[in-house]
Amino acid sequence: MKNKLTKYSLDKISKEVPFTLPNDYFEQFASNIDKQIAPKHRVHKLHQWLYAAAMFGGVITIGLVSYTLYTNNKTQAPLITEDYYDSLINAGVSEDLLVEYILNE
Amino acid sequence: MKEAEIEKWTHTLLASTNRQTAFSAIVRLTQEPLYWHIRKMVLSHEDTNDVLQNTFLKAWNGLDNFRGDSKITTWLYRIATNETLTFLSQQRLKNVTSSLDMEDVLLSKLEGDSYFSGDEVQKKLQKAILTLPEKQRLVFHMKYYDDMKYTEMEAILGTSTGALKASYHHAVKKIEQFLLNDD
């Protein structure tokens, strides 16, 4: 009984904490905390704005290009080709009627 | 801990100038004692890492609540203690269906932890400490391993010095009795 007491008395047990931890743990831990408290939200919001602005610009550009192409096609493409015009005249269609049709279109 | 350095950075923190740098410096100055404070309670390194991380992130997010009434180390110890006790109660809930006690779970974690470096006697001591209620375990660690003053413990745990002394005295008795009976 006395031996047991001597062996396991708290005074006889080392007060050193019996745990170890990975090398460089504290340096890595502190760096990790630094990353987590860095003001990333502002950067993130700025990125969101840039993405939105780029998207908006892209949509506007595509719209403008499409509209330009559409209007150019509309003004440049002949309503009736020359050959088709001649064939209609030859078929007996009145020229006044054809002119009136073209003008109305 | 380097008290003077901690105090200097605390002033910077309270002045709201360069908070991030000040907090980062405080993390570096306090992480080690806080790590061991948590580790002695949760035992496993991985769990300690999680709880310590939560401690500092909670402190950072709640920095406005720190007005300098107490030392920043006391405030951080309080957060770490709360986080540790919350973690242990969550673990207890997780194991509620298990036939093992929470203390058995902690002990098995300790036995499987490659970062446990103690011998058989130290393992026995850890086993004895695990028989104490959580708050008494905290008191025991803070006094036995860290030799913390009772006034500091009072500020952290919010328990009177008289009660802390009694708690520590009973803890020592219980542990010595356990060590005798367990042999």
How are the secondary structure elements laid out?
The complex is a heterodimer of chains A (105) and B (183).
Chain A: H1 2-8, H2 25-37, H3 40-76, H4 82-90, H5 95-104
Chain B: H1 3-14, H2 19-42, H3 45-61, H4 72-94, H5 102-112, H6 120-129, H7 134-144, H8 150-157, H9 161-182
Report on this structure:
The complex is a heterodimer of chains A (105) and B (183). With 105 residues, chain A is mainly alpha-helical. Helices cover 72% and strands 0% of the residues of chain A. Chain A has five helices and no strands. Chain A has helices spanning 2-8, 25-37, 40-76, 82-90, 95-104. The model of chain A has no long low-confidence stretch (mean pLDDT 78). In chain B, 30% of the residues are buried. Chain B is globular. Chain B folds into two domains: 1-98, Rna Polymerase Sigma Factor, Chain: A, CATH 1.10.1740.10; 118-183, Winged helix-like DNA-binding domain superfamily/Winged helix DNA-binding domain (Arc Repressor Mutant, subunit A, Orthogonal Bundle), CATH 1.10.10.10. By secondary structure, chain B is an all-alpha fold. Chain B has helices at 3-14, 19-42, 45-61, 72-94, 102-112, 120-129, 134-144, 150-157, 161-182. The interface between A and B is medium-sized, with 26 and 39 residues.
